[in-house]
Amino acid sequence: MRASAKIFWILGVFFLIVAVAYGFLTGMFQPMGVEPVGFPAMLALAGLAFMVAMVLSLTARKNDVGPSDDLNAEVEEHGGVQGSFSPYSWAPLWTAIGAGLCFLGVAAGWWILAFGVIFAVYGLLSWVLEFSVGQHQH
């Protein structure tokens, strides 16, 4: 966990330096000024790397040292529970169908997008509320 956090901190700094250099160079040599797509995209890439680094750093503080941080660790030490997944859930299927219809709607006809949104919202809500024990439990 700590090694992954360090990697993302380094990537974030690298992308930030590259974004500043790219913005400076395109500002000097482009007749219209700073290039409007690449510079914000690289800043967003640096921001995403910093966000992942922050999450990994905070997670590493809360948890013990894992096998990935131990130089003498074996592969089998990293085994165990990786998360809680529902084995017979239909929600990912409905969400994928909705996403596919949304993309098809943009390409083929906007009326298809409405059906895609309906399927995607239904699938996403059922996926999020799948393990709910409150008002919307299954």
From TrEMBL:
Subcellular localization, as worded in the UniProt entry: Cell membrane
Transmembrane segments: 7-25, 37-58, 93-122
Predominant localisation class: membrane
Record EC number: 7.1.1.9
Keyword Phosphoprotein part of the UniProt annotation: no
UniProt keyword annotations, A-Z: Cell membrane, Membrane, Translocase, Transmembrane, Transmembrane helix
Keyword Transmembrane part of the UniProt annotation: yes
Membrane topology field: Multi-pass membrane protein
InterPro entries the record matches: Cyt_c_oxidase_su4_actinobac
Catalytic activities: 4 Fe(II)-[cytochrome c] + O2 + 8 H(+)(in) = 4 Fe(III)-[cytochrome c] + 2 H2O + 4 H(+)(out)
Function: Part of cytochrome c oxidase, its function is unknown.
Subunit structure: Associates with subunits I, II and III to form cytochrome c oxidase.
Family indicated by similarity: Belongs to the cytochrome c oxidase bacterial subunit CtaF family.
Name used for this protein in its record: Cytochrome c oxidase polypeptide 4
Organism: Brachybacterium tyrofermentans
